[in-house]
C-alpha cells in the first residue's frame, strides 16, 4: 500500500500567508497558498504547501525538471538530459508537440537544473533557461520549433520537526516566446504552480510499499 500523503492547514506552521516578502497572496485555502509578484512585464507565481507524511527526500525524487514538465503539459514530446556539467548541475531539453496547450505548443526549452542541500537540510532545485547563445551552441534550434524561455523556476523543500513532513515551495516565471497576449501567459502561469498536487500524487505511487 502506498504511503498516505495529506495537506495540512497552513495554521499548523504559521509559515504560509506571509505578506512581508513582496508576494501578494491570491488564495490561501486548505493549506495551499498561491501568490504572485510582478517582475518586468510578466508575473512570477509561487505555490506553497505543507505536506504531511512526505519527507523532503521523497518529494525531491520526483521534483526534477522533466517530471515537473510532464505535469505542466501531458503532451511533453521529449525530456532528456543533454549534459551533466557537475554532480549537481545538468542541462536538459524539454520539447512539446503540436497537440500541447497554447502556452507550450511547438515549443522547446533548454534549461539547467541545479540541486543543492543546505546545512539545515533544506533541499533546493533551481531550473532556468540557458542564455540563448549558449543554448544554440549546445543544441541548434530547429526550424519548426519556438524556443521558449523559462526565466526562473524551482523548488525549496523545507523539513519540519516531524521528519516525515515538509513545506514545499514552487516558483515559476515563464516567457513562452512567439506571440501570446501577456494576460494569457500570466493566467496560464498561475496554473503551473498547482503542479505540486500532481507531484504529490506521483510521490504516492513511487513511495516504498
Automatic annotation (TrEMBL):
Domain of life (superkingdom): Eukaryota
InterPro entries reported in the protein's UniProt record: START-like_dom_sf (IPR023393), START_lipid-bd_dom (IPR002913), START_lipid_transfer (IPR051213)
Gene3D superfamilies, per the entry: 3.30.530.20
Domain START residues, every copy: 19-186
GO molecular function, one term: lipid binding
A GO CC annotation given for this chain: cytoplasm
Protein name listed in UniProt: START domain-containing protein
